[in-house]
Design brief:
Elements: H1 3-11, H2 17-36, H3 41-54, H4 61-70, E1 78-79, E2 99-101, H5 104-107, E3 110-114, H6 121-130, E4 138-142, H7 153-162, E5 166-167, H8 171-181, H9 204-212, E6 216-219, E7 224-227, H10 242-247, E8 250-253, E9 262-265, E10 275-276, H11 277-283, E11 299-302, E12 311-312, E13 316-318, E14 328-334, E15 338-343
Parallel strand pairs: 2-6, 3-4, 4-5, 7-11, 11-13
Antiparallel strand pairs: 1-2, 3-14, 6-7, 8-9, 8-10, 12-13, 14-15
Helix pairs in contact: 2-3, 3-4, 7-9
InterPro entries: Ap4A_hydrolase, Calcineurin-like_PHP, Metallo-depent_PP-like
Protein name: Bis(5-nucleosyl)-symmetrical
Pfam family, one: Metallophos
Length: about 350
């Protein structure tokens, strides 16, 4: 075989119109994914097979091995967000992993899901002792808002990080990052408010850990999704907005007559114009079972709503029992329905408005 024949036979497969189109689409898709992932290649490669499947495009054995090779054990399993958000409500960049998946191996024998800690580290440690926590048997998942209001915010972040705990991102965690990076409402300020003095005590590892926290954590084999504030009924998981996941307390129908889609409301209205989102979620049926990509998600565990305290609905449980206000810190033990609480050592802050809780 002469050289020209070998070359022509070698490039012939590349001239196949389908392969050319497929290659171009994949190249454009990867560029888009890199942009979506804020130049985080691991996140982009992990999301690629999902997006290609959504577009009805085949994934070759080569591309499958490429994607799987990039998803090494150090990269957590996750679902891509299609909400098209680049900044959090506080003004920091969105995390690389918005929707985290906790595998069966990571979950261990028991999963302890803890309500809003808000810097109450001593109460957190006492709660884990009461639950007979052992690192070999148990995984700890925090519902977010590790910081502010209580006395030991920086210490709480550092301890939870070094213990290997999991957490979702709360609105106060977002605000702490904004204060650290001087963005959002903290942009251009010469000195931080006293409530955020603690960020000066965070080291680079602490900040990187906070910055990595996802908005949701799905424990698929237990049929659970953990989120800080809530999920909007009727909207797929991967289309949920950061503001709802980190700040929402209630929902109401958009438009007149109560016939529109659900919209999130941060405050708790006094006139009955909105309902607890968790109550609506538990009534809405299959459209609220976690959305596309979380096939076994049936029950939500959340925090954020100290005003309402412990909330137990058919498909959602609220665990913020107001420890920083002198009430209790609560955890749920999975699998099962057992809950354990400890009393706060003191009231570290007096509630001063629904929007600030």
């Amino acid at each position: 075989m002469d050289t020209s024949t070998a070359v022509s036979e070698g490039i012939a497969p590349l001239l196949n119109p389908f392969l050319l189109t497929y290659t171009m689409v994949m190249s454009l898709m990867l560029l888009s994914l890199l942009r979506y992932a804020n130049n985080r290649p691991a996140a982009a490669f992990q999301a690629a097979p999902i997006l290609l499947k959504r577009l009805g495009l085949p994934i070759s054995s080569f591309s499958s091995s490429l994607f799987s090779a990039s998803s090494v054990s150090t990269v957590p399993r996750s679902l891509p967000s299609f909400a098209n958000e680049t900044l959090t409500p506080a003004g920091t960049r969105m995390p690389a992993c918005v929707h985290r998946i906790l595998t069966r191996a990571e979950a261990k024998e028991r999963v302890l899901v803890v309500g809003d800690v808000h810097g109450c580290l001593e109460e957190l440690q006492a709660l884990l002792v009461k639950a007979n926590y052992t690192a070999a048997r148990d995984s700890v998942v925090l519902v977010g808002d590790l910081v502010n209001k209580g006395p030991l915010s920086a210490e709480t972040v550092k301890w939870c990080r070094t213990q290997g705990f999991y957490s979702v991102r709360g609105n106060h965690d977002d605000s702490a990052l904004a204060a650290y990076f001087r963005v959002g409402k903290f942009a251009g300020v010469s000195s931080l408010p006293q409530a955020y003095d603690f960020v000066a005590a965070l080291d680079e590892a602490d900040v990187a850990w906070l910055d990595s926290l996802p908005y949701t954590l799905s424990i698929e084999h237990l049929g659970v999704v953990v989120v800080h504030a809530g999920l909007l009924p009727g909207r797929p998981l991967q289309m949920q907005q950061a503001a709802d996941m980190s700040r929402m307390r209630s929902v109401k129908r958009a438009g007149e007559g109560g016939e529109g889609t659900w919209v999130g409301v941060e405050y708790i209205p006094e006139n009955g114009e909105a309902e607890p989102w968790a109550k609506v979620w538990s009534q809405e049926g299959k459209e609220c079972e976690g959305g596309e990509g979380s096939t076994d998600a049936r029950h939500l565990l959340f925090g954020h709503d100290a005003k309402r305290g412990l909330q137990v609905f058919r498909k959602a449980t609220g665990l913020d029992t107001g420890c920083c206000y002198g009430r209790e810190l609560t955890l749920a033990i999975l699998p099962g329905e057992e809950r354990i609480s400890v009393k706060a050592l003191k009231a570290y802050q007096v509630p001063h408005g629904l929007k600030s809780e």
